[in-house]
Design a protein that fits this description.
- The structure is a single chain.
- With 370 residues, the protein is α/β, with parallel strands linked by helices.
- It has 17 helices and 5 strands.
- A 5-stranded parallel beta sheet has the order 2-1-3-4-5, sandwiched between helices.
């Protein structure tokens, strides 16, 4: 049986155009009013691979339908794409907060719209599989964590192995996060070595940079303490959820306090600084403490850039990957927050190495990078 696509719009031309685009591969179901659309959403949502929804519907508005779908958890199971006409204003941001994941504006480009639906459906299916696995997997990981913390003698002989194991817990808990830890470690090493050459007065050495790189693997360890509905949410977080997400910095430090006897002081100090301060910004507008300037530990300043860059060039359940050139621009122009001038200067000088690592690791590149 062919997968279904639901199109909810009061405009006949939009129903016809979208139906023509998808009927060769999907069973297309159309609704011309809010009431009719609500019936399909209530009765058959699990059968739809994607829902196209216009805001200004006859009867019940698209906004109300989206709010209902969000409240019932439907937007986390099926991608909702908002239909925009040529003269329509941009979709309000709060629509995306309610679970809308993309938009399509007339005139529709057949290949582009098809590709979007395929990608979104693929991401949603991967998320569903992740959710199914997470229960048993989470318990296994917690047991592994307890085991690691008890094996003190063995861990003292191989501290790097401990850090790698703890860092990988976050990746195993969120399959959409795959290899992020390893890439951040490598980006940290590249940027740290560049800064060592550019600014000898900072006192960086190859050994210290390596400590930063290995310790960076624990930058998000606190996320293992956060609930699944936040870690695995396929869309924007609410303000309340965002505050819970921010707590991963302090929760991570609490976890490090619990294993301090198994990690050398050098690695523990670097891991603690990175875990707590890698979301601080040079202008004081970061979190959790809002410190700025050189009050931010150098290790955290370096890892912060590595983390943000990897987040931009990686595909996530809630966003597409940015082109490498766009990621570089967003960081250097301050769109992602203000970073230290010296860190930015070295980042510019090692741009080619960052981009080569992206290509080398075979990540899902943005369209402009292919």
């Amino acid at each position: 049986m062919a997968s279904k696509i639901l199109i909810i719009t009061g405009k006949l031309v939009e129903r016809e155009e979208l139906s023509d685009i998808f009927r060769d591969r999907y069973e297309v179901v159309c609704a011309s009013s809010g009431e009719e659309g609500r019936k399909y959403l209530t009765d058959e949502i699990v059968e739809f691979e994607c829902v196209f929804l216009r805001g200004d519907l006859p009867g019940i508005s698209g906004e109300i339908l989206l709010k209902e779908a969000f409240a019932n958890g439907l937007t986390s199971k099926v991608p909702f794409i908002i239909i925009e006409g040529e003269e329509d204003p941009d979709t309000p941001d709060d629509w995306f907060d309610m679970g809308a994941i993309d938009f399509a504006r007339r005139p529709f480009r057949s290949k582009q719209v098809k590709r979007r639906v395929q990608n979104l459906a693929r991401i949603m299916k991967r998320e569903e599989k992740s959710t199914e696995k997470i229960g048993a997997q989470d318990e296994t990981l917690k047991k592994q964590f307890r085991l690691l913390t008890l094996q003190s003698e063995e861990l003292k002989k191989s501290r790097n192995s401990l850090l790698e194991a703890l860092g990988s817990i976050v990746e195993y808990r969120n399959l959409d996060y795959s290899d992020h830890i390893e890439r951040v470690k490598n980006f940290t090493r590249i940027l740290g070595l560049r800064m060592m050459k550019d600014y000898p007065d900072l006192g960086l050495t190859k050994e210290k940079v390596e400590v930063y790189a290995v310790a960076s693997m624990l930058h998000d360890i606190g996320k293992i303490c956060l609930p699944d509905n936040i870690i695995l949410k396929p869309g924007r977080l609410t303000p309340e959820e965002t505050e819970i997400m921010k707590s991963h910095t302090s929760k991570g430090c609490e976890m490090l306090d619990g294993i301090r006897s198994y990690i050398s002081k050098e690695y523990l100090s670097a891991a603690y600084d990175i875990c707590r301060y890698h979301h601080e910004k040079y202008d004081g507008k970061g979190y959790p403490e809002g410190i700025g300037g050189d009050s931010i530990p150098l290790s955290a300043q370096i890892v912060s850039v590595a983390d943000v860059y990897d987040g931009l060039v990686s595909e996530r359940i809630y966003k597409k990957a940015k082109p490498k050139s766009r990621a570089f621009e967003m960081i250097t122009t301050g769109e992602c927050g203000v970073f230290a001038p010296k860190v930015m200067e070295s980042f510019r000088r090692c741009r080619d190495e960052f981009e080569a690592l992206v290509d080398q690791t075979g990540m899902d590149l943005a369209e402009d990078d292919k």
